[in-house]
Q: What sequence folds into this?
Protein backbone atom coordinates (compact mmCIF):
# COMPACT_ATOMS: atom_id res chain seq x y z
CA UNK A 1 0.00 0.00 0.00
CA UNK A 2 1.32 3.46 -0.88
CA UNK A 3 1.87 5.95 1.89
CA UNK A 4 -1.10 8.27 2.11
CA UNK A 5 -2.42 11.03 4.23
CA UNK A 6 -4.84 10.04 6.96
CA UNK A 7 -7.72 7.88 5.88
CA UNK A 8 -10.25 6.00 7.90
CA UNK A 9 -9.60 2.40 8.83
CA UNK A 10 -12.99 1.31 7.55
CA UNK A 11 -12.30 2.71 4.07
CA UNK A 12 -8.84 1.15 3.86
CA UNK A 13 -10.12 -2.25 4.95
CA UNK A 14 -12.89 -2.07 2.38
CA UNK A 15 -10.36 -1.29 -0.35
CA UNK A 16 -8.13 -4.20 0.65
CA UNK A 17 -10.99 -6.65 0.85
CA UNK A 18 -12.26 -5.53 -2.55
CA UNK A 19 -8.88 -6.16 -4.12
CA UNK A 20 -8.64 -9.53 -2.47
CA UNK A 21 -12.09 -10.55 -3.64
CA UNK A 22 -11.05 -9.69 -7.19
CA UNK A 23 -7.89 -11.76 -6.75
CA UNK A 24 -9.87 -14.68 -5.37
CA UNK A 25 -12.22 -14.58 -8.32
CA UNK A 26 -9.27 -14.99 -10.70
CA UNK A 27 -6.97 -18.00 -10.75
CA UNK A 28 -5.54 -17.05 -7.36
CA UNK A 29 -2.14 -18.52 -8.20
CA UNK A 30 0.64 -16.37 -6.80
CA UNK A 31 4.03 -17.65 -7.83
CA UNK A 32 2.84 -21.23 -8.27
CA UNK A 33 2.62 -21.74 -4.50
CA UNK A 34 -0.82 -23.33 -4.33
CA UNK A 35 -1.74 -26.94 -3.76
CA UNK A 36 -3.31 -29.01 -6.56
CA UNK A 37 -7.02 -28.27 -6.98
CA UNK A 38 -9.86 -29.62 -9.02
CA UNK A 39 -10.93 -27.80 -12.18
CA UNK A 40 -14.36 -26.25 -12.52
CA UNK A 41 -16.55 -26.62 -15.61
CA UNK A 42 -14.75 -23.76 -17.34
CA UNK A 43 -11.33 -25.29 -16.76
CA UNK A 44 -10.07 -22.80 -14.13
CA UNK A 45 -8.86 -24.00 -10.74
CA UNK A 46 -11.51 -23.98 -8.01
CA UNK A 47 -10.44 -22.96 -4.51
CA UNK A 48 -9.63 -25.91 -2.29
CA UNK A 49 -12.00 -26.08 0.70
CA UNK A 50 -10.33 -26.68 4.06
CA UNK A 51 -11.51 -26.34 7.67
CA UNK A 52 -9.42 -24.66 10.37
CA UNK A 53 -10.11 -24.84 14.11
CA UNK A 54 -9.35 -21.59 15.94
CA UNK A 55 -10.57 -19.32 18.74
CA UNK A 56 -13.17 -16.69 18.02
CA UNK A 57 -11.85 -13.17 17.53
CA UNK A 58 -13.61 -9.85 17.98
CA UNK A 59 -14.33 -9.71 14.25
CA UNK A 60 -15.24 -12.56 11.86
CA UNK A 61 -12.22 -14.52 10.70
CA UNK A 62 -13.91 -15.29 7.39
CA UNK A 63 -13.91 -11.55 6.65
CA UNK A 64 -10.39 -11.00 7.95
CA UNK A 65 -8.07 -9.29 5.45
CA UNK A 66 -5.20 -11.68 6.19
CA UNK A 67 -7.57 -14.62 5.72
CA UNK A 68 -8.58 -13.23 2.32
CA UNK A 69 -4.91 -12.73 1.47
CA UNK A 70 -4.14 -16.35 2.32
CA UNK A 71 -7.14 -17.65 0.41
CA UNK A 72 -6.07 -15.70 -2.67
CA UNK A 73 -2.38 -16.54 -2.42
CA UNK A 74 -2.91 -20.29 -1.97
CA UNK A 75 -6.23 -20.70 -3.82
CA UNK A 76 -8.08 -22.10 -0.82
CA UNK A 77 -11.43 -21.46 0.80
CA UNK A 78 -11.15 -21.62 4.57
CA UNK A 79 -14.09 -22.75 6.64
CA UNK A 80 -13.75 -21.82 10.29
CA UNK A 81 -14.63 -24.06 13.24
CA UNK A 82 -14.48 -21.58 16.09
CA UNK A 83 -14.68 -21.75 19.87
CA UNK A 84 -14.65 -19.06 22.57
CA UNK A 85 -11.13 -18.50 23.88
CA UNK A 86 -12.06 -19.54 27.41
CA UNK A 87 -13.66 -22.76 26.11
CA UNK A 88 -11.05 -23.54 23.48
CA UNK A 89 -9.51 -26.55 25.22
CA UNK A 90 -12.88 -28.07 26.10
CA UNK A 91 -14.21 -27.63 22.56
CA UNK A 92 -11.01 -29.09 21.13
CA UNK A 93 -11.29 -32.15 23.35
CA UNK A 94 -14.94 -32.66 22.49
CA UNK A 95 -14.15 -32.61 18.78
CA UNK A 96 -11.31 -35.10 19.17
CA UNK A 97 -13.35 -37.39 21.41
CA UNK A 98 -16.32 -37.39 19.04
CA UNK A 99 -14.22 -38.07 15.95
CA UNK A 100 -15.87 -35.10 14.26
CA UNK A 101 -12.76 -32.94 14.10
CA UNK A 102 -11.56 -30.66 11.27
CA UNK A 103 -8.75 -31.18 8.81
CA UNK A 104 -6.52 -28.63 10.53
CA UNK A 105 -6.08 -27.28 14.03
CA UNK A 106 -4.66 -23.80 13.51
CA UNK A 107 -4.69 -22.91 17.20
CA UNK A 108 -5.13 -25.99 19.36
CA UNK A 109 -2.77 -25.25 22.26
CA UNK A 110 -1.40 -28.79 22.24
CA UNK A 111 1.21 -30.04 24.67
CA UNK A 112 3.80 -32.63 23.74
CA UNK A 113 1.62 -35.12 25.60
CA UNK A 114 -1.35 -34.25 23.37
CA UNK A 115 0.76 -34.63 20.25
CA UNK A 116 2.08 -38.01 21.36
CA UNK A 117 -1.39 -39.23 22.29
CA UNK A 118 -3.14 -38.26 19.09
CA UNK A 119 -0.10 -38.96 16.93
CA UNK A 120 0.12 -42.54 18.19
CA UNK A 121 -3.61 -42.96 17.55
CA UNK A 122 -3.19 -41.78 13.98
CA UNK A 123 -5.45 -38.75 14.51
CA UNK A 124 -2.57 -36.32 13.92
CA UNK A 125 -0.54 -37.12 10.83
CA UNK A 126 3.29 -36.92 10.79
CA UNK A 127 4.46 -33.70 9.21
CA UNK A 128 8.07 -34.66 8.43
CA UNK A 129 7.63 -35.18 4.69
CA UNK A 130 5.33 -32.18 4.33
CA UNK A 131 7.96 -29.96 5.95
CA UNK A 132 10.72 -31.44 3.84
CA UNK A 133 8.84 -30.96 0.56
CA UNK A 134 6.62 -27.93 1.11
CA UNK A 135 7.99 -25.82 4.00
CA UNK A 136 11.44 -24.50 3.03
CA UNK A 137 11.24 -21.53 5.39
CA UNK A 138 10.27 -23.58 8.43
CA UNK A 139 12.90 -26.15 7.51
CA UNK A 140 15.58 -23.45 7.34
CA UNK A 141 14.57 -22.10 10.74
CA UNK A 142 14.73 -25.60 12.24
CA UNK A 143 18.24 -25.98 10.85
CA UNK A 144 19.41 -22.60 12.14
CA UNK A 145 17.80 -23.11 15.55
CA UNK A 146 18.31 -26.75 16.57
CA UNK A 147 16.26 -26.31 19.75
CA UNK A 148 13.18 -25.76 17.57
CA UNK A 149 13.70 -29.03 15.71
CA UNK A 150 14.40 -30.81 18.98
CA UNK A 151 11.22 -29.43 20.55
CA UNK A 152 9.16 -30.48 17.53
CA UNK A 153 10.45 -34.02 17.20
CA UNK A 154 8.67 -36.73 19.18
CA UNK A 155 10.53 -39.74 20.61
CA UNK A 156 9.32 -41.83 17.66
CA UNK A 157 11.06 -39.42 15.28
CA UNK A 158 7.84 -37.90 13.95
CA UNK A 159 6.73 -34.28 13.99
CA UNK A 160 3.05 -33.99 14.87
CA UNK A 161 2.73 -30.26 15.59
CA UNK A 162 4.27 -26.91 14.73
CA UNK A 163 4.93 -24.25 17.38
CA UNK A 164 4.84 -20.50 17.30
CA UNK A 165 8.51 -19.53 17.57
CA UNK A 166 8.40 -16.49 19.81
CA UNK A 167 11.87 -15.49 20.99
CA UNK A 168 11.34 -12.73 23.49
CA UNK A 169 14.88 -11.92 24.61
CA UNK A 170 14.08 -10.48 28.02
CA UNK A 171 11.58 -13.31 28.65
CA UNK A 172 14.40 -15.84 28.45
CA UNK A 173 15.91 -14.58 31.74
CA UNK A 174 12.90 -13.66 33.88
CA UNK A 175 14.44 -14.08 37.35
CA UNK A 176 15.58 -10.49 37.62
CA UNK A 177 16.13 -8.17 40.57
CA UNK A 178 15.65 -4.40 40.59
CA UNK A 179 17.06 -1.90 43.09
CA UNK A 180 16.52 1.73 44.03
CA UNK A 181 19.72 3.49 42.93
CA UNK A 182 18.70 6.71 44.70
CA UNK A 183 18.65 4.85 47.99
CA UNK A 184 22.03 3.26 47.26
CA UNK A 185 23.43 6.73 46.62
CA UNK A 186 21.86 8.00 49.83
CA UNK A 187 23.52 5.30 51.96
CA UNK A 188 26.80 5.51 50.03
CA UNK A 189 26.82 2.02 48.53
CA UNK A 190 27.34 0.56 45.06
CA UNK A 191 25.04 -1.91 43.32
CA UNK A 192 25.71 -5.18 45.16
CA UNK A 193 27.66 -7.94 43.45
CA UNK A 194 27.71 -10.55 46.25
CA UNK A 195 25.28 -11.84 48.84
CA UNK A 196 27.29 -10.08 51.56
CA UNK A 197 27.03 -6.77 49.70
CA UNK A 198 23.29 -7.30 49.23
CA UNK A 199 22.87 -7.87 52.95
CA UNK A 200 24.77 -4.66 53.68
CA UNK A 201 22.61 -2.68 51.23
CA UNK A 202 19.34 -4.01 52.58
CA UNK A 203 20.47 -3.41 56.15
CA UNK A 204 21.34 0.18 55.25
CA UNK A 205 17.93 0.64 53.63
CA UNK A 206 16.33 -0.58 56.85
CA UNK A 207 18.33 1.49 59.30
CA UNK A 208 19.59 4.66 57.59
CA UNK A 209 16.30 6.29 56.50
CA UNK A 210 17.17 6.54 52.79
CA UNK A 211 13.86 8.20 51.92
CA UNK A 212 14.69 10.93 54.44
CA UNK A 213 11.30 11.26 56.12
CA UNK A 214 12.48 10.41 59.63
CA UNK A 215 10.28 7.34 59.79
CA UNK A 216 11.20 3.65 59.79
CA UNK A 217 8.82 2.95 56.92
CA UNK A 218 11.29 1.55 54.38
CA UNK A 219 10.71 -1.91 52.85
CA UNK A 220 14.19 -3.07 51.80
CA UNK A 221 13.06 -6.00 49.61
CA UNK A 222 9.60 -6.97 48.36
CA UNK A 223 8.17 -9.49 45.94
CA UNK A 224 5.09 -11.63 45.36
CA UNK A 225 4.17 -15.26 44.67
CA UNK A 226 5.12 -16.23 41.14
CA UNK A 227 1.54 -17.07 40.21
CA UNK A 228 0.68 -13.41 40.93
CA UNK A 229 3.78 -11.66 39.60
CA UNK A 230 6.09 -13.07 36.94
CA UNK A 231 9.18 -14.37 38.80
CA UNK A 232 8.09 -12.30 41.78
CA UNK A 233 9.03 -14.96 44.35
CA UNK A 234 12.14 -13.92 46.25
CA UNK A 235 13.94 -17.25 45.78
CA UNK A 236 13.77 -16.97 41.97
CA UNK A 237 16.70 -14.56 42.08
CA UNK A 238 18.34 -15.16 45.46
CA UNK A 239 18.68 -18.95 45.35
CA UNK A 240 20.80 -18.73 42.20
CA UNK A 241 23.67 -17.42 44.32
CA UNK A 242 23.78 -20.82 46.04
CA UNK A 243 22.51 -23.43 43.57
CA UNK A 244 20.77 -23.28 40.23
CA UNK A 245 17.04 -22.62 40.61
CA UNK A 246 14.88 -23.11 37.52
CA UNK A 247 11.92 -21.72 39.50
CA UNK A 248 9.65 -24.48 38.21
CA UNK A 249 10.57 -28.16 38.49
CA UNK A 250 13.75 -27.61 40.52
CA UNK A 251 15.75 -29.81 38.17
CA UNK A 252 19.50 -29.70 37.58
CA UNK A 253 21.32 -31.07 34.54
CA UNK A 254 25.04 -31.87 34.43
CA UNK A 255 26.63 -33.86 31.62
CA UNK A 256 23.14 -34.91 30.55
CA UNK A 257 22.32 -36.35 33.98
CA UNK A 258 19.21 -35.03 35.73
CA UNK A 259 19.27 -34.25 39.45
CA UNK A 260 17.15 -32.34 41.96
CA UNK A 261 18.09 -29.02 43.55
CA UNK A 262 15.71 -28.49 46.45
CA UNK A 263 17.12 -31.18 48.75
CA UNK A 264 20.80 -30.27 48.44
CA UNK A 265 22.97 -28.68 51.16
CA UNK A 266 23.41 -25.66 48.88
CA UNK A 267 19.62 -25.19 48.85
CA UNK A 268 19.66 -25.24 52.65
CA UNK A 269 22.41 -22.60 52.60
CA UNK A 270 20.26 -20.40 50.35
CA UNK A 271 17.28 -20.80 52.66
CA UNK A 272 19.47 -19.85 55.63
CA UNK A 273 20.48 -16.63 53.88
CA UNK A 274 16.86 -15.76 53.10
CA UNK A 275 15.89 -16.63 56.68
CA UNK A 276 18.52 -14.19 57.96
CA UNK A 277 17.17 -11.42 55.73
CA UNK A 278 13.61 -12.10 56.83
CA UNK A 279 14.42 -12.35 60.54
CA UNK A 280 16.08 -8.92 60.44
CA UNK A 281 13.10 -7.32 58.72
CA UNK A 282 14.81 -6.95 55.36
CA UNK A 283 12.23 -8.97 53.39
CA UNK A 284 8.63 -7.80 53.21
CA UNK A 285 6.34 -10.37 54.93
CA UNK A 286 3.71 -9.59 52.26
CA UNK A 287 6.08 -10.97 49.60
CA UNK A 288 4.60 -14.41 50.27
CA UNK A 289 0.97 -13.43 49.76
CA UNK A 290 0.44 -10.16 47.87
CA UNK A 291 -0.76 -9.82 44.28
CA UNK A 292 0.21 -7.54 41.41
CA UNK A 293 -2.22 -4.79 42.44
CA UNK A 294 -0.71 -4.64 45.91
CA UNK A 295 2.79 -4.44 44.43
CA UNK A 296 1.77 -1.57 42.17
CA UNK A 297 0.21 0.31 45.07
CA UNK A 298 3.43 -0.05 47.06
CA UNK A 299 5.60 1.26 44.29
CA UNK A 300 3.38 4.05 42.99
CA UNK A 301 2.02 5.37 46.28
CA UNK A 302 1.93 9.13 46.65
CA UNK A 303 4.40 10.76 48.96
CA UNK A 304 7.65 9.22 50.13
CA UNK A 305 9.03 6.21 48.33
CA UNK A 306 9.14 3.18 50.61
CA UNK A 307 10.49 0.28 48.50
CA UNK A 308 14.20 -0.38 48.08
CA UNK A 309 14.30 -3.47 45.85
CA UNK A 310 12.01 -5.83 44.02
CA UNK A 311 12.21 -9.33 42.52
CA UNK A 312 10.44 -9.81 39.16
CA UNK A 313 10.93 -10.17 35.42
CA UNK A 314 9.36 -6.73 34.94
CA UNK A 315 9.98 -3.52 36.83
CA UNK A 316 6.61 -2.32 35.52
CA UNK A 317 4.79 -4.50 38.07
CA UNK A 318 6.12 -2.16 40.75
CA UNK A 319 6.48 1.20 39.03
CA UNK A 320 4.73 3.16 36.30
CA UNK A 321 7.20 3.22 33.40
CA UNK A 322 4.70 4.29 30.74
CA UNK A 323 4.35 8.03 31.34
CA UNK A 324 7.15 10.49 30.65
CA UNK A 325 6.04 12.87 33.40
CA UNK A 326 6.47 10.20 36.09
CA UNK A 327 10.09 10.02 37.24
CA UNK A 328 10.24 7.53 40.11
CA UNK A 329 11.14 4.54 37.92
CA UNK A 330 14.13 6.35 36.42
CA UNK A 331 16.39 5.80 39.43
CA UNK A 332 15.85 2.04 39.50
CA UNK A 333 18.46 -0.34 38.08
CA UNK A 334 18.72 -4.05 37.37
CA UNK A 335 21.09 -5.95 39.66
CA UNK A 336 23.19 -8.67 37.96
CA UNK A 337 23.25 -12.19 39.42
CA UNK A 338 24.94 -12.20 42.81
CA UNK A 339 27.99 -14.27 43.64
CA UNK A 340 27.33 -16.45 46.66
CA UNK A 341 29.69 -17.61 49.44
CA UNK A 342 30.87 -20.58 47.35
CA UNK A 343 31.29 -18.55 44.15
CA UNK A 344 27.98 -19.69 42.65
CA UNK A 345 26.47 -17.10 40.30
CA UNK A 346 23.61 -18.26 38.08
CA UNK A 347 20.83 -16.61 36.11
CA UNK A 348 17.56 -18.48 35.79
CA UNK A 349 16.82 -19.30 32.16
CA UNK A 350 13.64 -20.38 30.39
CA UNK A 351 14.38 -22.64 27.43
CA UNK A 352 12.38 -24.45 24.83
CA UNK A 353 8.86 -24.45 23.47
CA UNK A 354 5.97 -25.53 25.64
CA UNK A 355 2.88 -25.64 23.40
CA UNK A 356 2.01 -26.27 19.77
CA UNK A 357 -0.93 -24.55 18.09
CA UNK A 358 -0.89 -26.42 14.78
CA UNK A 359 -1.65 -30.00 13.77
CA UNK A 360 -3.06 -31.70 10.66
CA UNK A 361 -5.53 -34.53 11.21
CA UNK A 362 -6.22 -37.70 9.30
CA UNK A 363 -9.36 -36.04 7.90
CA UNK A 364 -7.18 -33.98 5.55
CA UNK A 365 -6.64 -35.10 1.99
CA UNK A 366 -3.15 -34.94 0.53
CA UNK A 367 -4.07 -31.70 -1.25
CA UNK A 368 -5.46 -30.16 1.94
CA UNK A 369 -2.39 -31.18 3.96
CA UNK A 370 -0.05 -29.64 1.38
CA UNK A 371 -2.07 -26.43 1.26
CA UNK A 372 -2.15 -26.16 5.04
CA UNK A 373 1.61 -26.67 5.27
CA UNK A 374 2.27 -24.01 2.62
CA UNK A 375 0.03 -21.56 4.46
CA UNK A 376 1.97 -22.13 7.67
CA UNK A 377 5.33 -21.98 5.92
CA UNK A 378 4.37 -18.56 4.55
CA UNK A 379 4.05 -17.35 8.17
CA UNK A 380 7.71 -18.32 8.59
CA UNK A 381 8.73 -15.78 5.95
CA UNK A 382 9.36 -12.20 6.99
CA UNK A 383 6.45 -10.96 4.91
CA UNK A 384 4.08 -13.60 6.22
CA UNK A 385 5.05 -13.03 9.85
CA UNK A 386 4.68 -9.26 9.45
CA UNK A 387 1.25 -9.37 7.81
CA UNK A 388 -0.07 -12.20 9.97
CA UNK A 389 0.97 -10.66 13.27
CA UNK A 390 0.70 -6.92 12.70
CA UNK A 391 -1.77 -6.58 9.87
CA UNK A 392 -2.25 -6.09 6.17
CA UNK A 393 -2.51 -2.31 6.45
CA UNK A 394 0.82 -0.52 6.30
CA UNK A 395 0.91 2.74 8.28
CA UNK A 396 -1.81 1.51 10.62
CA UNK A 397 -0.39 -1.35 12.69
CA UNK A 398 3.17 -0.92 11.44
CA UNK A 399 5.24 1.09 8.98
CA UNK A 400 8.58 0.94 7.25
CA UNK A 401 11.24 2.41 9.52
CA UNK A 402 12.32 5.96 8.84
CA UNK A 403 15.94 6.92 8.26
CA UNK A 404 17.80 6.91 11.55
CA UNK A 405 15.40 4.61 13.40
CA UNK A 406 17.26 1.93 15.35
CA UNK A 407 16.28 -1.31 17.06
CA UNK A 408 16.88 -2.23 20.70
CA UNK A 409 20.55 -2.95 19.92
CA UNK A 410 21.16 0.38 18.22
CA UNK A 411 21.16 -1.18 14.75
CA UNK A 412 19.24 0.01 11.71
CA UNK A 413 15.58 -1.02 11.91
CA UNK A 414 13.39 -2.18 9.02
CA UNK A 415 9.98 -1.62 10.60
CA UNK A 416 8.46 0.61 13.23
CA UNK A 417 5.35 0.85 15.38
CA UNK A 418 5.94 4.55 15.96
CA UNK A 419 4.23 5.74 12.79
CA UNK A 420 4.80 9.39 11.75
CA UNK A 421 1.65 11.47 11.89
CA UNK A 422 1.86 12.53 8.23
CA UNK A 423 1.49 8.93 7.01
CA UNK A 424 -0.37 7.38 9.91
CA UNK A 425 -3.79 6.01 9.02
CA UNK A 426 -6.45 7.28 11.34
CA UNK A 427 -8.22 4.41 13.08
CA UNK A 428 -11.99 4.60 13.20
CA UNK A 429 -12.89 4.05 16.85
CA UNK A 430 -16.17 2.40 15.83
CA UNK A 431 -14.47 -0.14 13.57
CA UNK A 432 -12.83 -3.29 14.94
CA UNK A 433 -9.55 -4.00 13.23
CA UNK A 434 -9.77 -7.19 11.23
CA UNK A 435 -6.63 -7.26 9.12
CA UNK A 436 -4.36 -9.72 10.96
CA UNK A 437 -4.36 -13.11 12.68
CA UNK A 438 -2.36 -11.59 15.53
CA UNK A 439 -1.32 -14.34 17.99
CA UNK A 440 -2.99 -17.05 15.95
CA UNK A 441 -1.21 -20.04 14.49
CA UNK A 442 2.50 -20.84 14.08
CA UNK A 443 4.77 -18.11 12.76
CA UNK A 444 8.30 -16.78 12.92
CA UNK A 445 8.50 -14.40 15.85
CA UNK A 446 12.18 -15.20 16.24
CA UNK A 447 14.69 -12.85 17.80
CA UNK A 448 15.88 -11.84 14.34
CA UNK A 449 12.38 -10.80 13.27
CA UNK A 450 11.57 -9.05 16.54
CA UNK A 451 14.89 -7.21 16.33
CA UNK A 452 13.90 -5.77 12.95
CA UNK A 453 11.56 -3.28 14.66
CA UNK A 454 12.58 0.15 15.83
CA UNK A 455 12.76 0.90 19.53
CA UNK A 456 13.29 4.11 21.45
CA UNK A 457 16.96 4.42 22.31
CA UNK A 458 16.42 6.14 25.66
CA UNK A 459 15.69 3.19 27.97
CA UNK A 460 14.13 5.49 30.58
CA UNK A 461 11.59 7.04 28.22
CA UNK A 462 8.00 5.85 28.09
CA UNK A 463 8.63 4.26 24.69
CA UNK A 464 12.01 2.79 25.63
CA UNK A 465 10.90 0.12 28.08
CA UNK A 466 11.70 -2.72 25.65
CA UNK A 467 15.20 -1.31 25.26
CA UNK A 468 15.54 -1.08 29.02
CA UNK A 469 14.51 -4.71 29.49
CA UNK A 470 16.93 -5.84 26.78
CA UNK A 471 19.81 -3.95 28.37
CA UNK A 472 18.93 -5.39 31.78
CA UNK A 473 18.80 -8.91 30.36
CA UNK A 474 22.34 -8.56 29.00
CA UNK A 475 23.49 -8.53 32.64
CA UNK A 476 22.00 -12.00 33.18
CA UNK A 477 22.77 -13.84 29.96
CA UNK A 478 26.48 -14.47 30.73
CA UNK A 479 25.49 -16.34 33.90
CA UNK A 480 23.15 -18.91 32.36
CA UNK A 481 24.00 -22.49 33.36
CA UNK A 482 25.81 -24.58 30.78
CA UNK A 483 22.92 -27.05 30.89
CA UNK A 484 19.31 -26.47 31.87
CA UNK A 485 16.29 -28.71 31.59
CA UNK A 486 14.29 -27.79 28.44
CA UNK A 487 10.62 -27.02 28.97
CA UNK A 488 9.63 -28.94 25.82
CA UNK A 489 11.19 -32.29 26.71
CA UNK A 490 8.88 -35.08 25.56
CA UNK A 491 7.52 -37.09 28.46
CA UNK A 492 6.84 -40.68 27.42
CA UNK A 493 3.13 -41.42 26.98
CA UNK A 494 3.18 -44.04 29.74
CA UNK A 495 4.75 -41.52 32.15
CA UNK A 496 2.49 -38.53 31.49
CA UNK A 497 0.03 -39.01 34.35
CA UNK A 498 2.74 -39.82 36.87
CA UNK A 499 4.82 -36.83 35.76
CA UNK A 500 1.89 -34.45 36.20
CA UNK A 501 1.00 -35.77 39.64
CA UNK A 502 4.58 -35.89 40.91
CA UNK A 503 5.40 -32.43 39.56
CA UNK A 504 2.43 -30.87 41.34
CA UNK A 505 3.01 -32.59 44.67
CA UNK A 506 6.79 -32.00 44.70
CA UNK A 507 6.48 -28.37 43.62
CA UNK A 508 3.87 -27.69 46.32
CA UNK A 509 6.03 -29.41 48.93
CA UNK A 510 9.12 -27.39 48.03
CA UNK A 511 7.32 -24.06 47.95
CA UNK A 512 5.34 -24.51 51.17
CA UNK A 513 8.41 -25.67 53.11
CA UNK A 514 10.50 -22.88 51.63
CA UNK A 515 8.12 -20.27 52.99
CA UNK A 516 8.07 -21.96 56.40
CA UNK A 517 11.86 -22.13 56.61
CA UNK A 518 12.24 -18.47 55.58
CA UNK A 519 9.52 -17.16 57.88
CA UNK A 520 10.77 -19.35 60.74
CA UNK A 521 7.79 -21.60 61.42
CA UNK A 522 10.20 -24.43 60.59
CA UNK A 523 13.79 -24.53 61.84
CA UNK A 524 16.59 -25.32 59.41
CA UNK A 525 18.70 -26.87 62.16
CA UNK A 526 16.05 -29.24 63.49
CA UNK A 527 13.59 -29.72 60.59
CA UNK A 528 15.84 -29.95 57.53
CA UNK A 529 16.48 -33.70 57.72
CA UNK A 530 12.78 -34.38 58.07
CA UNK A 531 12.10 -32.16 55.07
CA UNK A 532 14.62 -34.06 52.94
CA UNK A 533 13.21 -37.39 54.11
CA UNK A 534 9.76 -36.23 53.04
CA UNK A 535 10.76 -36.49 49.38
CA UNK A 536 10.89 -40.27 49.76
CA UNK A 537 7.16 -40.29 50.35
CA UNK A 538 6.69 -38.11 47.29
CA UNK A 539 8.59 -40.62 45.12
CA UNK A 540 11.35 -38.20 44.13
CA UNK A 541 13.38 -41.03 42.64
CA UNK A 542 10.61 -41.83 40.17
CA UNK A 543 10.25 -38.09 39.41
CA UNK A 544 13.91 -37.82 38.43
CA UNK A 545 13.74 -41.05 36.42
CA UNK A 546 10.82 -39.75 34.32
CA UNK A 547 12.58 -36.51 33.44
CA UNK A 548 15.86 -38.28 32.78
CA UNK A 549 14.09 -40.60 30.37
CA UNK A 550 12.49 -37.65 28.60
CA UNK A 551 15.86 -35.99 28.14
CA UNK A 552 17.44 -38.97 26.39
A:
Amino acid sequence: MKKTKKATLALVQLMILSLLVVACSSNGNNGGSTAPTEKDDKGSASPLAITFFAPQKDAPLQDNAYTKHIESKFNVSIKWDLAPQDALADRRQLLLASGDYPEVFLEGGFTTTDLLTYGSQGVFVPLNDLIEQHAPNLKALMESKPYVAQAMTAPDGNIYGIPRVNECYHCTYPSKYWMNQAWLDEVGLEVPTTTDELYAALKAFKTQDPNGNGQADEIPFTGAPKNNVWAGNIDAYLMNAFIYNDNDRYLLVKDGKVDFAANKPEWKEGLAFMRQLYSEGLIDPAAFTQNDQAISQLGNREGDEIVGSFSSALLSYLLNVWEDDIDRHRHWVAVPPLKGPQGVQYAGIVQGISTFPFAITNKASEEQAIAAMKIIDYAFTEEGALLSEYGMIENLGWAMAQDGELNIWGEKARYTFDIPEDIKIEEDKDTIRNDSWSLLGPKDMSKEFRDSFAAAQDPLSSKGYETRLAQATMLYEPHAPEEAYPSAAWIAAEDVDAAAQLTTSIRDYVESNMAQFIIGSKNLDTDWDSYVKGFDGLNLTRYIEIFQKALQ
Remarks:
- Confidence is low (pLDDT under 50) at residues 1-43.
